[in-house]
Design goal:
By secondary structure, this protein is of the alpha/beta class. Helices cover 29% and strands 30% of the residues. It folds into two domains: 5-131, Response regulator (Rossmann fold); 138-243, Beta Barrel (OB fold (Dihydrolipoamide Acetyltransferase, E2P)). The chain is built from eight helices and 15 strands.
Length: 246
Amino acid sequence: MKPLRTLVVDDEPLARERLSRLLKEAECEVVGELGDGVSLLHWLKDPEPVDVIFLDIQMPGLSGMEVLAEVPDGPPVVFVTAFSSYAVRAFELAAVDYLLKPVFEDRLEKCLQRLRDRLVRPLSPSELKTLLPPPVRFPIRAGDGEIYMELDLVTHFELENDRVWACRGQNRYLTRWAALAEVEQAFPEDGLLRIQRHLLLRPKMVKGIRPASVGRIKVMVAPKVELLVSRAMTPRAKECIRAGAP
């Protein structure tokens, strides 16, 4: 029997390496390993033929699911997730399969058999879009009440006098948080980066960088809005920003 050709997409190196190893042990061919949605986007511009993509559902930045939702003729997808709620939503479509982390050999073999029996079909963009999680929102103060803002609109968070402000470029909105650690705990999958004691950056919103003082950079998040990155965090900031660049 011809081995299944597979692509593994997961932002966690250990999880990615484990699944690739299990696939090879199951006599599958792993044609590639990718670590984020942007890499998948580049791969899809000139893809190798594959029988299935093993796709981590939750990845920082542009998710693989968001990428595939824009592809009209993609291969079958098996979702890999640590969150059973996502798996349940995905499996509501009968033609979808999923693996819960950590992946074990017996469950993987059942999934591979379904693929060999062609019980897992490619999903249309509209079907994939139904599986995308709803926008992440959080409350901001509005007079005596509050309104809800989408996290995707925020460029960074700023701490000032024990109050956290959500910033959208030059515009600032007062939140209910009193510490940046609370923001990090609220959005652990967003890839937030502490670039100063009082600044929490969303690297995916960075539009450009330039040198500042020796060993430091400034990041542009909106026209006329630049944030200074601490010397200690400059290497990490460069790494995160470039990883999310198209």
